[in-house]
Write a structure and sequence with these properties.
about 525 residues; mainly beta; Tachylectin-2, Chain A; Jelly Rolls; 2 domains; six-stranded antiparallel beta sheet; five-stranded antiparallel beta sheet
Length: about 525
């Protein structure tokens, strides 16, 4: 049995990880932005093999996402446990005027759910965190633009006590950190810990792209003043350039293992085909030791390793990306995501779905008829079988989604004259370009997106016939480097009547996610 595991431990778009341990079980959450359900909850016994057990935000009445633009929504959650209760604090960003937004807290006795309705905190900024001190006091901390900035983009970490009885912030506010490096932007993602009587503040810095970094400070009291580590930043890859295997390292959270060892989960990106990272910001693991009262990340290496030795691991491959042996992603899988609300347009049907079309399209910040899974492998085939009659102007098929402005659609479309075509459409910077079209008869059609590196081939097959390649899309137009935002690529199914009233329903008997054999 091997105890060496490959990084990342959660491949695909699982950014801003936060972790805590309760007994011999570790619990982890990540950001989800405009996707629903929000904030996946994972558990593990060894920090390597993670099983998703639910989501924190899984009910329509918990949060209002409607009108929230891409790469807005749920930012940077923190999960903690105290006295039998799990707590998550998070930020809901970009809500329309009048809709609830900002920092909130939810609780649960079982991290698989149900979680409570949000309680909104009267403090601005993003990336809230929680610290339960051993004197019974609870402290909320987060980041915001500095009130008296010394340079553009400077932020500050604030700290304030939480009254658990009223769930309201109370007492004076303390500004405890403004960044470790002069001129560095976005000191964010703060977390507090108490180790051997000393308070430690861990914070990200430099933005979430190539200049991302992790810094640490310490204090004799929770409210400061905090002394920065002379070694700051204690972990970064920004000095390694854009050609390195992992970039953007930061936004770390610490956890002590059952055997007393220390570890950090953090985000990073794996570029390929140039400086493009279609898989998004992923969750990585690094060992941590303590020297002279300071944490040392990835000791002896100073960087995120491609493989990490975890002595107590059980030898199971990391992440949920393995799926079933057949590649079928059943409706019961927690990997499915919709946009900004529940997928009440979709009904489980055996190994697949019945998908009711909606007038809304993928170009609108609403809840279209869309279901997708994260792209978790560079080389992967995604295949969907679609069957059903469409009215004129309607379409249904596969989508490679980055956002409303940038995506690829491979769909069966009904013409006004009653004919059907499979259309390959690349939407780039809000402009649609039809790449190819193929006339198809009535009956089931198998659509395939075959990604090999940055080449996304689009194929269609009628019945049991051989697939025909319609087009190849350059994936370098689909990541957040090219399109903006913070998310990776989702691969999924969708259907729309393009604004017309509709009662159309199509069947998707199966949807397969098939990682290509490693070279």
């Amino acid at each position: 049995m091997t105890t060496t595991t490959p990084n990342p431990i959660l491949p695909g778009c699982y950014p801003d990880p936060s972790v805590c341990r309760v007994g011999d079980t570790y619990w982890l959450v990540t950001s989800t932005f405009e996707y629903f359900p929000g904030l996946p909850v994972f558990r593990s016994r060894d920090l390597v093999s993670w099983e998703q057990v639910g989501h924190v935000i899984d009910r329509a009445d918990q949060l209002d996402y409607q009108g929230v633009r891409y790469s807005h929504g749920l930012f940077a959650p923190t999960i903690r446990h105290h006295d039998g209760v799990f707590w998550v604090v998070c930020t809901h960003v970009g809500t329309p005027e009048g809709a609830p937004g900002g920092n909130f807290v939810v609780t649960a006795t079982d991290p698989a759910g149900p979680w409570s309705d949000p309680v909104w905190l009267d403090e601005d900024g993003i990336d809230p965190s929680l610290f339960f001190d051993d004197d019974g006091r609870v402290w909320v901390h987060g980041t915001r633009p500095a009130r008296e900035p010394q340079w553009d983009g400077q932020t500050e970490v604030w700290l304030r006590e939480l009254d658990r009885g009223t769930m309201r912030l109370t007492g004076p506010e303390h500004v405890v950190w403004k960044g470790a490096v002069l001129g560095a932007v976005w000191a964010e993602g703060p977390h507090l810990y108490k180790v051997d009587g000393t308070y430690y503040l861990l914070a990200a810095e430099g933005g979430t792209d190539i200049h991302h970094a992790t810094s640490v400070a310490r204090s004799a009291t929770v409210t400061g003043p905090y002394e920065g580590n002379k070694a700051n930043p204690v972990l970064t890859h920004r000095h390694l350039g854009r050609g390195v295997d992992v970039t953007g390292v930061g936004h770390a959270d610490l956890v002590q293992a059952v055997n007393g060892s220390w570890w950090a989960v953090l985000l990073g990106m794996r570029p390929y085909g140039g400086y493009h990272y279609n898989l998004g910001r992923e969750t990585f693991l690094v060992p941590v030791t303590w020297e002279d009262g300071w944490p040392v990340f990835a000791p002896g290496a100073g960087r995120v390793p491609a493989e990490v030795e975890v002595p107590f691991a059980d030898g199971v491959a990391p992440g949920e990306a393995q799926g079933s042996a057949s590649g079928v992603v059943p409706p019961s899988s927690l990997r499915w995501s919709s946009l900004r609300g529940p997928a009440d347009f979709a009904t489980p049907d055996g190994d697949g779905w019945r998908l009711a079309l909606r007038p809304a399209t993928l170009t609108e910040p609403v809840t279209p008829a869309f279901l997708g899974v994260r792209q978790q492998h560079v080389d992967v085939d995604v295949r969907g079988v679609l069957d059903g009659s469409l009215a004129a102007g309607e379409e249904a098929g596969l989508v490679v989604r980055q956002n409303e402005r940038d995506h690829v659609r491979l769909a069966i479309a009904a013409d006004d004259d009653g004919g059907r075509r499979v259309r390959a459409v690349h939407r780039r910077a809000a402009v649609d370009t039809e790449l190819a079209a193929l006339a198809v008869p009535d009956g089931p059609v198998t659509l395939t997106v075959s990604a090999r590196g940055q080449d996304y081939a689009l194929l269609a097959a009628v019945g049991d016939g051989d697939p025909e390649r319609l087009a190849v899309v350059d994936g370098r137009t689909l990541d957040s480097t090219a399109a903006g935002g913070f998310t990776g690529v989702w691969l999924g199914i969708y259907g729309t009547s393009n604004g017309r009233p509709t009662t159309t329903e199509v069947r998707v008997p199966r949807f397969e996610y098939l990682p290509a054999a490693e070279k």
